[in-house]
Amino acid sequence: MDNYLVWSVCLGFVLLGVGSRGAAPKRPVDVPFGRNYYPTWAFDHIKYLNGGSEIQLMLDKYTGTGFQSKGNYLFGHFSMHIKMVGGDSAGTVTAFYLSSQNNEHDEIDFEFLGNRTGQPYILQTNVFTGGKGNKEQRIFLWFDPTKAYHTYSILWNMYQIVFLVDDIPIRVFKNSKDLGVRFPFDQPMKLYSSLWNADDWATRGGLEKTDWSKAPFIASYKGFHIDGCEASVNAKFCETQGKRWWDQKEYQDLDAAQYRRLKWVRQKYTIYNYCTDRSRFPTTPVECKRDRDI
Predict the structure, then answer these.
(1) How much is the pLDDT for 35?
(2) 111 is catalytic
(3) DSSP-derived 3-state class of residue 221
(4) Looking at 111, 208, 239, 250, which residue is catalytic?
(5) Which residue, among 263, 261, 198, 219, has the nearest Cα to 87 in the 3D structure?
(6) pTM metric for this prediction
(7) Which of 93, 146, 178, 185 has the least CB density, counted as fewest CB within 10 Å?
(8) pLDDT tens column, 27-78
(9) Contacts for 208 with CB less than 8 Å, ≥ 6 apart
(10) Residue of 107, 136, 208, 230 with catalytic role
(11) Which of 169, 168, 165 is nearest to 145 (CA)?
């Protein structure tokens, strides 16, 4: 399947004349790595470029590597410009996610699953609440993520979690506490990213193994943006709750234009949605009933 050649035409028809408030206020794109992040393992597998405004993560047969934010955050907007591993990337996973630091952890995941040369990357998203995940959705991207930088963002507030690719919403997870569904709202999270080998499951369920003759595998990063409420690891609320831009009414739901974009992604590029998987969930998960596009 090759969606890369037609994505711009399709996107143009979807976005033409629509207009939208956008995902967030304008932000700087060249935030240096060291302002918000530090390496967490295999320091020698991280390469710094352009004074630290760009880095590369390297994976070889010995190890991958990763980094994490200096601070813990309760709500905010988090984004990264990433260029994925090119060529034969089967078995590799490039991850960008928020996670709390205890056994019953909360987590908000982007996972980019590599593939054999010529096959599209798969983007998997997931949400963990109270240590329980099983809320996977998977899409093909409408562009080749190895050719240039693209922006991957998470908007997280008391009302919703929005996953965005180049400011296009690809998934929304609404706060459904009133339906008895847990929502991440009282555990501060750090932001993490990593490049690692997962050929036991990442590509075709583990059938396609990592070809180490193609190593090292390299993912590139820049635009290390964080705009969140920084909190201690034990905080239960954000001191500025209700006062930051992401708490305002216009960010408590998507607008009509954003829902049209989300529907476009659902119809053309979604390849798996746990909400419609009756083999795993014979009864539709409660939170899925609030999803207006299912």
Answers:
(1) 92
(2) yes
(3) strand
(4) 111
(5) 219
(6) 0.90
(7) 178
(8) 555 788 999 999 999 999 999 999 999 999 999 999 999 999 999 999 999 9
(9) 90, 91, 115, 116, 199
(10) 107
(11) 165
Q: Of 182, 135, 167, 234, whose CA–CA distance to 29 is shortest?
A: 167
**Strand 150-156 relative to strand 37-41, pairing:** unpaired
Strand partners, 153: 79, 164
pLDDT for 1 equals 46
Residue type, 101: Q
Alpha helices in the chain (DSSP H): 7-15, 33-36, 256-269
pLDDT of residue 27: 55
DSSP, residue by residue, 117-156: TTSPPEEEEEEEBTTB----EEEE-SS-TTTS-EEEEEEE
Q: What is the dihedral of CA 174, 177, 181, 183, to 10 degrees?
A: 60
Q: What is the pLDDT, as a whole number, of residue 292? A: 56
* Dist. CA 278–CA 273, nearest whole Å: 10
Task: Tell me which DSSP letter residue 212 carries.
Answer: G
Q: In the prediction, which pLDDT does 10 show? A: 42
Torsion over CA: 53, 65, 68, 39 (sign): negative
Residue with tokens 């798969």: 122
